[in-house]
Amino acid sequence: MPVFDRLFENFAMHVDLNAAEQTHIKSVLQHQKLERNKMLLEAGEICRNFYFIDKGCLRVFNRDKEGAEHNVLFCPENWWATDISSFADQQPAYYNIATLESTELFYFTHHALQQLYIDVPKMERFFRILAQNGFSLYQRRINSIISRSAEERYLKFQHLYAELENRIAQKHIASYLGITPVFLSMIRRRNA
């Protein structure tokens, strides 16, 4: 039986749900356990789920024409993940989503979340705030990529993902930073 504590603490950051609303939300939530390196979404598929990471970590990434992977976001515990354009419009996804370690998720299907907005209007407020925060995060990330050095981006990564650096492979961190693993090693040595 899944434990909902972390999820409802996350909701409580933006909305106050009563017992009946919590029970209703639990009734439409799905739960899933996945091993490391499992794909949840492949680019080109329609993203049908909006995930909350209860344990573990996901990465959101795309592949270029040569097949190189580019990580755009890591989603550890207490984060949400989806390909928002694909999920919202039910159109083919641009991004892939995969586990970086054994992961436990809660998720809403597209249909369930649309109905939940009607049944529990506070959830529409919650996901609006979540979308605003996500958009802000992406804007800061874009600004960081175009205006900061690789070393500054690494220090920002360490701040944003304080507990994550020792949990995921160096190649994934380097991809997120837009540098090679060798260059990341050099930056780490300078900052040790």
TrEMBL record:
Pfam families: cNMP_binding. Signal peptide: none annotated. Residues 13-73 form the Cyclic nucleotide-binding domain. InterPro entries: cNMP-bd_dom, cNMP-bd_dom_sf, RmlC-like_jellyroll. It comes from the Bacteria. This is Crp/Fnr family transcriptional regulator. It comes from Pedobacter miscanthi. The lineage of its organism: Bacteria, Pseudomonadati, Bacteroidota, Sphingobacteriia, Sphingobacteriales.
